[in-house]
TrEMBL record:
Organism of origin: Halteria grandinella
Disordered: annotated span: 1-24
PANTHER family: HEPARAN-ALPHA-GLUCOSAMINIDE N-ACETYLTRANSFERASE CATALYTIC DOMAIN-CONTAINING PROTEIN, LD22376P
Name of the protein described by the UniProt record: DUF5009 domain-containing protein
Superkingdom: Eukaryota
Record keywords: Membrane, Transmembrane, Transmembrane helix
Record field: transmembrane: 61-82, 160-179, 230-250, 280-297, 309-331, 352-369, 389-411
Length: 419
């Protein structure tokens, strides 16, 4: 029987550094910089949701808001490396927790999609299906993959070999397979001419696999190519494994510090943290270089999660986490940590719950009024500011303020909802 999402009155363990010895078990440290980054991402999701409902983007467009979900994958990789250790691989409870969380994330994502279609199905009095894949579904698959390999494979070079194999499969089929011609489901007389190495919305190999699995219609996927489809999950593993490497480096530093004397810890702590920060910046720069190399033949396309997109967003995630770590953990200025960062910590400590609540409330309001909550706020400001950037900006700020209030109340009551 699946365990229901839990309300933790203290704290979840995802951000906690695993102790290097049993004696240190009671001294787990919480990585505040990871909470801050999560909070920034939730703020980004609220902003991106409003922004994309106001402006349209092309298939190959790239915007900073496209980095939000990849950074969640990156954070997931960090938390996996901090929480799950190789010595846990023989414990049945560890595998049960991995499978439980994978299934729950996948089911929650599908429940949100069912809710989105429910009102339409009721009004039409017929079954219309729902989207099987999605953001949480892809997160669950990546979590299962990275968690399993992290506790089974010790050396990072074998993780690199596994990831290289996944990318070889992705690039080989995406650029080398000749996608057959087909007819659009809503236009049976319009034949789509496809072929090899076509990365557009109608003819990319990822969309072809989704249509083969879910059927050549729009009942179970975003048609004709699902942005979070099955095949393109292969390349999204880049973001998760990038986070895993960052987490392994952090864990190694903490283990080195635990073997030092108390005096050396005080002297070397700042030095080691700054060295770690420089190594992360260097690694993020390497991701930029790799992304540039792949960009020469694999364009940046978020909707098929191209390899260049994955490396560039991994670099952005790495830089963002490094900066958060430097400001929060290394500088450790009380005004910054206790005042400026607090709103993002409120959001970050209940990031999954707030994300699900945002989507669920938006779906509900759209179902009963055919108008999402953002549109009501947007058109209110547009009535005296005019439609466009300024009205969208004020709508984003008000929407963000409302969710900050919710996050603050949960944080104040020490309610942290996890799966």
């Amino acid at each position: 029987m699946l365990q229901q999402p839990t309300i933790d009155q203290n704290a979840d363990s995802e951000n906690q550094l695993s102790p290097a010895s049993p004696q240190a078990a009671s001294k787990k440290e919480r990585l505040m910089s990871l909470d801050v980054l999560r909070g920034l991402l939730i703020a980004g999701i609220i902003s991106a949701d409003c922004w994309y409902r106001s402006f349209n983007y092309d298939w190959e467009s790239f915007d900073i808001t496209d980095c939000v979900f990849p950074t969640f994958l990156f954070i997931m990789g960090i938390t996996v490396s901090l929480k799950l250790q190789q010595q846990d691989r023989f414990q049945r409870r560890t595998w049960y927790q991995i499978l439980q969380r994978t299934i729950l994330l996948f089911l929650i994502g599908n429940v949100l999609h069912i809710e989105e279609r429910m009102f339409y199905m009721i009004s039409q009095n017929r079954f219309t299906g729902w989207r099987i894949m999605g953001t949480l579904q892809r997160l669950s698959i990546c979590y299962l993959t990275v968690s399993s390999t992290n506790i089974l494979i010790t050396k990072l070079k074998f993780h690199a070999i596994f990831l290289a194999l996944c990318l070889t499969i992705y690039l080989g089929f995406m650029h080398g397979y000749a996608v057959p011609n087909y007819y659009l489901a809503n236009s049976p007389n319009s034949e789509i001419i496809c072929g090899r190495a076509k990365l557009n919305e109608e003819c990319n190999f990822g969309g072809f696999i989704d249509r083969m699995v879910f059927g050549n219609n729009s009942k179970w996927m975003i048609y004709p190519s699902d942005p979070e489809g099955l095949f393109t999950t292969l390349s999204s593993l880049i973001n998760a494994y990038a986070g895993l490497v960052f987490g392994r480096m952090l864990q190694q530093k903490k283990q080195e510090m635990s073997s030092s004397s108390m005096v050396l810890k005080c002297i070397e702590g700042g030095i080691r943290n700054e060295k770690l920060f420089r190594n992360w910046i260097l690694l993020s720069t390497t991701f930029v270089i790799l992304g540039s190399l792949f960009w020469s033949f694999d364009p940046i396309i978020r909707n098929i999660w191209s390899v260049s997109f994955a490396f560039f967003t991994s670099a952005i995630s790495g830089f963002a986490f490094s900066i958060c770590f430097y400001v929060v953990e290394i500088l450790n200025i009380s005004f910054i940590n206790e005042t400026l960062c607090q709103p993002f910590i409120w959001l970050g400590r209940n990031s999954l719950f707030i994300f699900v609540a945002i989507v669920a409330i938006s779906n509900f309001l759209f179902g009963i009024s055919h108008n999402r909550s953002y549109y009501s706020i947007y058109f209110f400001f547009a009535s005296f500011l005019g439609e466009g950037f300024l009205a969208a900006l004020f709508a984003i700020l008000l929407n963000l303020t409302l969710w900050l209030l919710v996050a603050y109340l949960l944080y104040r009551k020490k309610i942290f909802i996890t799966v």
